[in-house]
Amino acid sequence: MVQKTAKFGGTASDVVVAKVGHGLMMMTWKPTPVPDEQCFEAIKAGLDGLDSLPAGTKMLINSAEFYGMSSPTLNLELVAKFFEKHPEYVDKAFLSVKGGLTEKLSPDASPEGLRRSVDNINEKLRGKKRMDLFEPARVDPNYSIEHTMTELSKLISKGKFDHIGLSEVSAQTIARANKVLPVAGVEIEVSPWSYTQETKDVIATCKELGIAVAAYSGFLTEGDFRRKYTRFQADVMKHNFITVNALKAIADKKNITPAQLCIAWVGHLGDHVIPLPGSSRKDRTLGNFAGGEVDLSEEDLDEIAKVLETHPIKGSRIIYLVPLKEAWLSGVRDWTAAQRGAYANDLTRFQLVAVTDNLNKSKGVISLIIRGTDI
Description:
Layout: E1 5-7, E2 16-18, E3 22-23, H1 25-28, H2 36-48, E4 59-64, H3 74-85, E5 93-99, H4 111-125, E6 133-136, H5 145-157, E7 163-167, H6 171-180, E8 185-189, H7 197-209, E9 212-216, H8 234-253, H9 258-267, E10 273-276, H10 282-292, H11 298-310, E11 318-323, H12 337-344, E12 352-354, H13 358-362, E13 365-370
């Protein structure tokens, strides 16, 4: 039974959601998307869990304009089909959507780019579910965050969506953005695999400003492209498995899964932190929600902290030697050498950075660097 809740912030401070949200990315962002009906059952499992919560409580559902391989908007189309078939769930969902990227997944915060993205999202949703919150997926270095917030506020005034969120941003950027218009939520990676000082600063700033943190990541399933990060590669994992096994031992003592322990740990980082695990199966959704209900004692939290301090995770969000057929992850398939070099030389601002050369390309592979936030 779901009992814990959280609140969004800023202009959405009256929105109460279940403590655990639902990320939809891996339903469609893979060579072979998950069958619609399986996805629908996974989504319904979470929404049905709201029945034990006060009336009006919603579940955070997270999508994006680019979560598709054969078609970038495949995830949005899935969302539209779900609510078309199950309109009784519309009022139970708080839908956040990331956008604001070009076809090559470069950030575009120009007035035209933001408007085009928002209109495209609404077109794909077909009026079956309103976009409650829009997030620029990455900061565009060509425009100030103040400019971006101002342009998005204009789109809100035109009725395009209701609230503004940010994604993969620094604490400083959040503070600047919030001065223009109150930010409702910030989406970042938070997990035992990714708990840097930068992450801690974002969580602290959001608490100070009354902003919700949608914390994605956790343990990865088979087929998740993030398994290619160097932190999950065989040689690095020899070290990281020490941490994994230590966390598993803690989970075993509490009769929960390691994934549920991670979800519970993330949730304990603050009342404003909303774990956002992904799921494309009903049983996994139910397991994720159960993780959000787990109470961790001070002793548990101290034990986890000691594990992470004693055995810090090695590796990073870097992907090496990705087959070109998977280069849809960043849209770099058609980049010129100059474009790749320009991105590779500015690792602080871009999430997806190609660092390949003709030799690697001739071998049918490409290397990607994944960066988390802006500066």
